[in-house]
Amino acid sequence: MGATKQPAAVDGRDGALAVFRAEGCSPARPWGNGPGDTTGAHTHGYHKVLFCLSGSIVFHTDQGDLELRPGDRLDLEPGTRHAATVGSDGVECIEASR
Question: What is the mean pLDDT of residues 15-30?
Fold first, then answer.
């Protein structure tokens, strides 16, 4: 189980959607949160693929913290425990599962 980050993996929403299609992912789910918002620790039973579109967010995992900025990709394997803290400008992300 784990989390991996790829910096500058895409250029915007269209790039993320192209990756989701190419990898056979589920339909994309956009979401956003305000500055300083937090999400408590949890897991998913699926592989999550997430792209940061604007702002920033830090994902807290048992392996350490991973900060995402626009264009960055995060892959969370099933069962990976994670929490998150949104940066000072808020965040807009798009995610899918595979």
Answer: 98
Domain that holds residue 31: 3-97
pLDDT of residue 1 exceeding 70: no
Question: Would you call 70 exposed, middle or buried from its count of C-beta atoms within 10 A (0-12, 13-18, 19+)?
Answer: middle
Question: What is the pLDDT averaged over residues 29-58?
Answer: 98
Q: The CATH number of the domain where 83 resides is what?
A: 2.60.120.10
Phi, psi of 18 (to 5 degrees): -65, -40
Span 12-31, mean pLDDT?
97
Q: How far apart are CA 11 and CA 21, in angstroms?
A: 15
Q: What is the count of structural domains for the chain? A: 1
User: Residues 56, 87: contact at Cβ < 8 Å?
Assistant: yes
Q: Which two tokens stand for residue 68?
A: 């995402």
